[in-house]
Amino acid sequence: MLFIIVFMPEPFPSFSTDQVAAFVELARQGSLRKAAEALLISEQGLRNRLIALEQRMHAELYRKSRGPRRNNPLTQQGQRFLPHALAFLERSRELSELFQTSEPRRVIHVAASQYLILYVMIDAVRRFHEAFPHIQVRLSNRIEQEIENDLLNDPDVEVGVAAPYESAPALAYTHLFSMEWSLIALPGNPLLRKRNLRLTDLTDLPLILFERGSTGRQHVIDAFHGQGLSPRVDMEATNTEIIVRMVEAGLGVSIVPLLSSGVVTRGHGVGVRKLGRQIGPIHSGVLTRRGEQLSAAAQEFVNFILHDARRERKN
Fold first, then answer.
1. 248 and 310, same structural domain?
2. What is the DSSP secondary-structure string of 214-225?
3. What CATH number corresponds to the domain at position 268?
4. Average pLDDT of the segment spanning 252-267
5. Which of 113, 79, 98 is nearest to 238 (CA)?
6. Count of domains in the chain?
7. C-alpha span between 116 and 120 (Å, rounded)
8. Which of 85, 268, 271, 112 is CA-nearest to residue 185?
9. What is the pTM of this model?
10. Domain with 61 in it: what CATH number?
11. Residue 1: pLDDT above 70?
């Protein structure tokens, strides 16, 4: 007698989009109470969904013990599961919209520095919307450190556009363009005509620099200290536009990274003198979570601005 043994594949774990959405909202809000309020359900209802999900996954996904408040309630297994949960919800949304007659509208959240929003991203997003009208880009203004923190802790933020001094190991950096540094001063300042202008010529001048903790300020201070110099910093500002206006008002001189197009200083009563490679160039690029697959909409946006940057470098 012949016996045939058939091995059946393991069944797929049975969990719902509601359960996965509860987990993602907990990661986003940081607490059961806030997550329940966001989903318009009771806290116990949220907890029931999470317990059911953990039973299906055979893993503890969030910390349940009462104790010191943590910014991130997820366990190590929960952190590992989070990008897959986000991808699962995105695919579920695509399935539900598969047979809709009109193309669904997507929303992606992009965090960028004020400089890049003002002089690069506004125009790029406008042209992106013309090419992809069904994708909405939601821009948020952040400093570099906040952009990295948002990418590491906020599942809503998919893409960062910034000039990081050193990006976190958990983030992947893709280069867009570099900017070199220039001295800006009132048009009659003799330093603008000086041959072989050096940082030593600037140490006793009233400098206007970026605020403490910014990538730009760190580049400048490191360059001075690398030559054993201590710059005189009289004023600080949060962005380049304010610095240009302060120089124009005669409050001092400044050292800033400038786009080659001249758009930052055009129309202002200031003169510009390039400093070459005396200060390390500012490298700006795209930051994403390392090892995490972007949504289709976010990937379209990243590809678009990378193509834009390559085209600008060729021109």
1. no
2. -HHHHHHHHHHH
3. 3.40.190.10
4. 88
5. 113
6. 3
7. 5
8. 271
9. 0.63
10. 1.10.10.10
11. no
